[in-house]
Amino acid sequence: MEMIIGGAFQGKLEYARRQYPGREFLDGKECSLEMIKEADGVYDFQEWIRKEMKEELETGKSLRESKEQVQKKAQELIRENPDLIIISNEIGYGIVPLDAFDREFREATGRICTCLAENASRVIRVIMGIGTVIKGD
Predict the structure, then answer these.
(1) Does the pLDDT at position 42 exceed 90?
(2) Nearest CA among 137, 3, 10 for reference residue 74
(3) CATH second-level architecture of 2-135?
(4) pLDDT tens for residues 5-25?
């Protein structure tokens, strides 16, 4: 597994397409866990986390329970798709959101991406379209 992270609109997807030609990247807000398990790559992974948390809440789970369930789902990716390339925005900077869901979503995204990065063979941070390897070779 590899991760590409960076701020919004920093050219992460374009960078990934240059580095991994021929790979198809799915939109995180549009795909299911099963789709990601079979995918080459996924962009806007933070939006997959948001969508999954909202779906868990709709089943009657608490914010804490929904966050824990999505963390478990993300850990499945480590085992089941070791060749996956995950592209995610860094969303933990700036003002802490007032809305409880947004705070929990932000925390969940940080924790999930931290776990995925620990297990990734390579992590690249992209700023202004330039990738810098922060883990791996």
Answers:
(1) yes
(2) 3
(3) 3-Layer(aba) Sandwich (3.40)
(4) 999 999 999 999 999 999 999
